[in-house]
Amino acid sequence: MxxxxxxxxxxxxxxxxxxxxxxxxxxxxxxxxxxEDKWLAHMRGGGxxxxxxxxxxxxAAIRHFQNYAVFNPSIMISRSNDGALIAGVAERTGxxxxxxxxxxxxxxxxxxxxxxxxxSKLAAHIVDGPQGPAGKVKAGVIRLxxxxxxxxxxxxxxxxxxxxxxxxxxxxxxxxxxKVHLRFGEMLSFDKTKDPALFEEQRARLExxxxxxxxx
Length: 216
What we know:
CATH architecture: 3-Layer(aba) Sandwich
Number of domains: 1
CATH class: Alpha Beta
Low-confidence stretches: none
């Protein structure tokens, strides 16, 4: 019988196993949450919020982000094989996944996230994913904010003890039972503009704000 690794990695059985493993692993973290109340109050009052994180740090946030499933939030995930696995895990945590990235299917995926965000008032976005470069905020997050009148809230994750992968973003994996700090930045507003120079200024501003939270 031919061994098909890609098919196994995409199978429901394997994804279910990985989801349970991640959930058990993440429950060992000693989480500390900072500055969450402000943006939650804004959203519950009818405002729209776009949570933004670096690719390096999203794993540390998975456990806590499951608490937002009640809002039916959305997130864009690439169409790669790795993306299929991540999307399967995200769906099980209660997040609606839209498949696409800046390199493949990005425009259609962005439109879908816009539609969902207008309804649910909450979405998350990986600002430099899925392939980087690390520390470079891509333009899609500003387009999302403009199209949905959303406030952008940066999210930063750090761990007392962690491994950093030898990857393009030095991916952060907290060690079991480590203290993990999940910090939400201040709510940021970006006025709509058709001026390319002003648009780039907004993108650069967000990058400047978020860049110090990245560990390279």
